[in-house]
Amino acid sequence: MSIFEYNGSALVAMVGKNCFAIASDRRLGVQLQTIATDFQKIYKIHDKLFIGLAGLATDTQTLYQRLVFRHKLYQLREERDMKPETFASLVSALLYEKRFGPYFCQPVIAGLGDEDKPFICTMDSIGAKELAKDFVVAGTASESLYGACESMFKPDMEAEELFETISQALLSSVDRDCLSGWGGHVYLVTPTEVTERILKGRMD
Amino acid sequence: MTKQQANWSPYDNNGGTCVAIAGADYCVIAADTRMSTGYNILTRDYSKIIQLADKSVMASSGFQADVRALQKVLAARHLIYQHQHNKQMSCPAMAQLLSNTLYYKRFFPYYAFNVLGGLDSEGKGCVFTYDAVGSYERVGYSSQGSGSTLITPFLDNQLKSPSPLLLPAKDAVTPLSESEAIDLVKTCFASATERDIYTGDKLEIVILNASGLRREYMELRKD
């Protein structure tokens, strides 16, 4: 089994009209055994910037801790929050630092940039950025997520419709992946508010 | 001196995706027409679908040389059946034959991933899905091949028919109409073509119903 498939994860972020949604599954496993069914994979950096981390759980937690450290320093020096594009470059740089002994993580970054324009991107474990205008996926369920998102996505969806779409895409995809599931965690972010919702899905 | 390993494989994967959906009185079987090897395209116009009997149509992805050989064996066995029984094989019977034929080569398998679609003896749609060595199951819908991991979750979501993942096993057919099922198949392939490099060029759709067999084609992205 690949090291990326040790814990299991499913992550997806989608762009809507002046909003974005980022969603993950809730399972933490050790190969075939499930250890936790409420494991957090999406972290808030600031009100308009979220990062989801797929892959080996120990590396995702360590990487998150380093990123929070770096962002807090940035806030102290610049007296403002980091823009999503800048944050993505930071994540990419941190990952590439470990080019010959990488973190086994795949990040999904979603935020609202200048003028509240939605920004999403993903990268591989050594920091190769992939910017997308529609959606990005990561984790053991990524192939299923590609198929589901490609069929269900429409540009410029409003917040409620975006929530429905990302939830359906996530739930149908994790139902076909043994290593992810046990419900879903969806963050729906608009310029004025952040809504966090738990999805109930197949608990297996 | 380390032991020498064989670097020649008798198998190759020609890629491609197949889908079949069973309805109340119809069955839709579809496959793309791209044949590839590695990163190259061999042809954009290769049919993976064959009609084995009046009411049985098989679509196969995988190693097309093995698929061709398998099709020949099944066609020959069907001809013998017709001579001996003076009638066409029913779809469930063909399903069992396919399973047995695949298992016959358990220790040097046909590298073929099959879906068999057709109408059962009551005229209801039926779809059977197989692995390479003949394990099979009657289902309401199925997808095999390189794009199957992209398509299957979407079908689970859209078909509103009991998923094969449910227990106890429920009656399989989808309540969708024939034209809705065809549109769904077209959407599936358009999406799979975007994200799977081995799927594309053209989509061939075969529809079986009480009036017989009909074929439709749709262009797909060629990149």
UniProtKB/TrEMBL annotation, chain A:
<dbReference type="Pfam" id="PF00227">
    <property type="entry name" value="Proteasome"/>
</dbReference>
<dbReference type="GO" id="GO:0005634">
    <property type="term" value="C:nucleus"/>
</dbReference>
<comment type="function">
    <text>Non-catalytic component of the proteasome, a multicatalytic proteinase complex which is characterized by its ability to cleave peptides with Arg, Phe, Tyr, Leu, and Glu adjacent to the leaving group at neutral or slightly basic pH. The proteasome has an ATP-dependent proteolytic activity.</text>
</comment>
<comment type="subunit">
    <text>Component of the proteasome complex.</text>
</comment>
<keyword id="KW-0539">Nucleus</keyword>
<dbReference type="InterPro" id="IPR029055">
    <property type="entry name" value="Ntn_hydrolases_N"/>
</dbReference>
<dbReference type="InterPro" id="IPR033811">
    <property type="entry name" value="Proteasome_beta_3"/>
</dbReference>
<dbReference type="GO" id="GO:0019774">
    <property type="term" value="C:proteasome core complex, beta-subunit complex"/>
</dbReference>
<keyword id="KW-0647">Proteasome</keyword>
<comment type="similarity">
    <text>Belongs to the peptidase T1B family.</text>
</comment>
<dbReference type="GO" id="GO:0043161">
    <property type="term" value="P:proteasome-mediated ubiquitin-dependent protein catabolic process"/>
</dbReference>
<dbReference type="InterPro" id="IPR023333">
    <property type="entry name" value="Proteasome_suB-type"/>
</dbReference>
<keyword id="KW-0963">Cytoplasm</keyword>
<dbReference type="InterPro" id="IPR016050">
    <property type="entry name" value="Proteasome_bsu_CS"/>
</dbReference>
<comment type="function">
    <text>Component of the proteasome, a multicatalytic proteinase complex which is characterized by its ability to cleave peptides with Arg, Phe, Tyr, Leu, and Glu adjacent to the leaving group at neutral or slightly basic pH. The proteasome has an ATP-dependent proteolytic activity.</text>
</comment>
<dbReference type="InterPro" id="IPR001353">
    <property type="entry name" value="Proteasome_sua/b"/>
</dbReference>
<dbReference type="GO" id="GO:0005737">
    <property type="term" value="C:cytoplasm"/>
</dbReference>
<protein>
    <recommendedName>
        <fullName>Proteasome subunit beta</fullName>
    </recommendedName>
</protein>
UniProtKB/TrEMBL annotation, chain B:
<dbReference type="GO" id="GO:0005634">
    <property type="term" value="C:nucleus"/>
</dbReference>
<dbReference type="InterPro" id="IPR001353">
    <property type="entry name" value="Proteasome_sua/b"/>
</dbReference>
<keyword id="KW-0539">Nucleus</keyword>
<dbReference type="GO" id="GO:0005737">
    <property type="term" value="C:cytoplasm"/>
</dbReference>
<protein>
    <recommendedName>
        <fullName>Proteasome subunit beta</fullName>
    </recommendedName>
</protein>
<dbReference type="InterPro" id="IPR016050">
    <property type="entry name" value="Proteasome_bsu_CS"/>
</dbReference>
<comment type="subunit">
    <text>Component of the proteasome complex.</text>
</comment>
<keyword id="KW-0963">Cytoplasm</keyword>
<comment type="function">
    <text>Component of the proteasome, a multicatalytic proteinase complex which is characterized by its ability to cleave peptides with Arg, Phe, Tyr, Leu, and Glu adjacent to the leaving group at neutral or slightly basic pH. The proteasome has an ATP-dependent proteolytic activity.</text>
</comment>
<dbReference type="Pfam" id="PF00227">
    <property type="entry name" value="Proteasome"/>
</dbReference>
<dbReference type="InterPro" id="IPR029055">
    <property type="entry name" value="Ntn_hydrolases_N"/>
</dbReference>
<keyword id="KW-0647">Proteasome</keyword>
<dbReference type="GO" id="GO:0051603">
    <property type="term" value="P:proteolysis involved in protein catabolic process"/>
</dbReference>
<comment type="function">
    <text>Non-catalytic component of the proteasome, a multicatalytic proteinase complex which is characterized by its ability to cleave peptides with Arg, Phe, Tyr, Leu, and Glu adjacent to the leaving group at neutral or slightly basic pH. The proteasome has an ATP-dependent proteolytic activity.</text>
</comment>
<comment type="similarity">
    <text>Belongs to the peptidase T1B family.</text>
</comment>
<dbReference type="InterPro" id="IPR023333">
    <property type="entry name" value="Proteasome_suB-type"/>
</dbReference>
<dbReference type="GO" id="GO:0005839">
    <property type="term" value="C:proteasome core complex"/>
</dbReference>
